[in-house]
Specification:
Length: about 210
């Protein structure tokens, strides 16, 4: 699943200037253009063992893919599991999903491992055509950082809540927000809550008073 595009933005969490809440939050044009680009053959990666082709919106990041299910007309089809091997050495092992002509959606759990085999990030939630789409949650295992909210084709989009445990290791991340008066301390966590656009915070607000679509 195309998680690495968002991964780059959460490794070093950057505070974004908040905007005055508007009555309607438009979906990011940049994200739409990335997600809606032509569905051509270069967007498919072939499993070297089964020969099945699997769709991805980030084919240039993938070194190889493994598929455990069946093929139909050369594309992954039916139930099976995927393992993505990225060119930077990270590995993504996914739960069972249902494929149609190389694409899949519905609920999925993805476990991401570092090149040295450590569990790095866990994502659970909805997917569409192999990307996070709809409601979901990710956990950065070592840091304990979580994000729970909405996604659009692989990026945070719409309402979401970022929770950062207050630890020595997480202080740089917390400081990047607190210096701009974004977020607040709640018990042993630092919370950033609001509307996200194109994977970054656009409007800080509580769920009860966030702008409605």
């Amino acid at each position: 699943m195309d998680f690495l595009s968002m991964l780059l933005s959460v490794l070093v969490l950057k505070a974004q200037a908040t905007e005055k809440p508007s009555k309607k939050v438009e979906t990011s044009t940049k994200v739409k253009k990335t997600a809606d680009k032509a569905d051509n053959e270069e967007n498919y990666i072939k499993d070297s063992i089964s020969g099945c082709k699997i769709y991805t919106i980030a084919f240039w990041r993938v070194k190889k893919v493994e598929w455990t299910g069946d093929c139909k007309d050369g594309y992954s089809h039916g139930k099976g599991k995927l393992t993505w091997h990225y060119i930077n050495g990270y590995i993504d092992k996914e739960s069972t999903t249902y494929h149609t002509r190389g694409k899949y959606g519905g609920f999925v759990t993805s476990n991401y491992y570092t090149p040295d085999g450590k569990l790095f990030i866990i994502f659970s939630g909805n997917a569409f055509e192999g990307a996070m789409h709809g409601k979901g949650q990710y956990i950065m295992v070592a840091e304990g950082i979580t994000f729970k909210g909405n996604f659009y084709k692989g990026a945070r989009e719409g309402y979401g809540k970022l929770t950062i445990p207050i630890t020595k290791e997480n202080q740089p991340n917390i400081k990047s927000y607190s210096q701009k008066n974004i977020g607040k301390k709640v018990a042993n966590n630092y919370i950033i809550e609001g509307i996200w656009e194109d994977d970054v915070l656009a409007t800080e607000c509580r769920k009860s008073d966030c702008p409605k679509d």
